[in-house]
Write a structure and sequence with these properties.
With 293 residues, the protein is an alpha/beta fold. Helices cover 44% and strands 16% of the residues.
């Protein structure tokens, strides 16, 4: 049964079984070595949102072939324009199997007279603590170089988990706002299937299992003082706990401890990916940015 499930998942994702086996065998043989390679990457670089490395195929590589993604020296924080000390950085964190292009609607409509868009690009198959730690190291280095006084952070889906963990690790007063969209705070039941595949389990799947050590830690740790969290969730029917955005249940998106700590909760009738292309969602986000003092 497990073999059949694995084959079906791999067929759906378009990844060859032998390729996945080779990738994950190397990771599980020495995860610390790959983590070291991740942390050795440079701090930031400038790129266009249409850069060839931001395409769908590379996003899938980050999920299904995270070792290759790291060895090809992809990832990091990308400035979408030259750094401007007069503009507040807004850092966008994509979800599983995705790229910064998922944020195109938001980035293209961001008020560039006040803000500059930064995008975190990372191999989403790696453990989320690794992704959050890498992000923290890069941001810390950037702050040492540029000394920005404010940083706003936005994460979609799994990227919301990474973003919140980063904010907790960073714990610096320059992080002021956290926006999360359609984030599975209480996990994804389907992840149990992926996590049950032993040495063939994508590492981040283990973190997404409801009740995982990663999720328990995230739910129990308080945000640093001074960080204002705006939680956006999507629904398709009535916004009840058993409703969903087509991927994540409302109950997971509105996990009680995370929601209780949020400054505001914003619900929209939209689907999991559509929440990032919704005019009303962006208008609320832009208004919160503009109204923050």
């Amino acid at each position: 049964m497990r073999t059949l499930a694995l084959v079906l998942v791999l067929l759906l994702e378009g990844c060859a079984f032998s390729q996945l086996r080779e990738e994950l065998s190397e990771f599980y043989a020495d995860p610390a070595a790959l983590t070291g390679e991740v942390f050795a990457r440079g701090a930031a670089q400038i790129a266009r949102l249409d850069a060839p490395g931001f395409t769908f195929d590379y996003g899938r590589m980050g999920l299904w072939q995270p070792v290759s993604f790291v060895k090809e020296k992809r990832g990091g924080i990308y400035f979408l324009e030259a750094y401007d000390p007069a503009k507040i950085p807004v850092l966008f964190v994509h979800g599983a199997g995705s790229t910064p292009q998922d944020w195109r609607y938001f980035i293209e409509r961001l008020d560039r007279s006040r803000y500059q868009a930064w995008a975190y690009y990372y191999p989403t198959g790696l453990p989320m603590d690794v992704s959050a730690d890498w992000l923290n190291r890069i941001v810390t280095a950037l702050h040492a170089r540029y000394g920005f006084q404010q940083l706003f952070v936005a994460g979609h889906s799994m990227g919301g988990l990474v973003a919140r963990r980063f904010v907790s690790l960073n714990a610096q007063p320059y992080v002021k706002l956290l926006f999360t969209f359609a984030t599975p705070w209480d996990g994804v039941p389907f992840a149990r299937l992926g996590a049950s595949l032993g040495v063939y389990a994508i590492p981040s799947w283990r973190d997404l299992v409801p009740g995982s050590a990663f999720l328990r830690a995230l739910q129990s740790e308080a945000l640093p003082a001074g960080v204002e969290h705006h939680l956006f969730f999507g629904y398709r029917e009535d916004a009840g706990p058993y409703d969903s955005d087509g991927v994540i249940t409302v109950s997971s998106q509105r996990e009680s401890r995370i929601e209780a700590a949020a400054a505001q909760v914003h619900g929209f009738k939209t689907d999991h990916s559509g929440i990032l292309d919704d005019a009303a969602v962006f208008a609320r986000f832009a208004g919160l940015l503009a109204g923050f003092n």
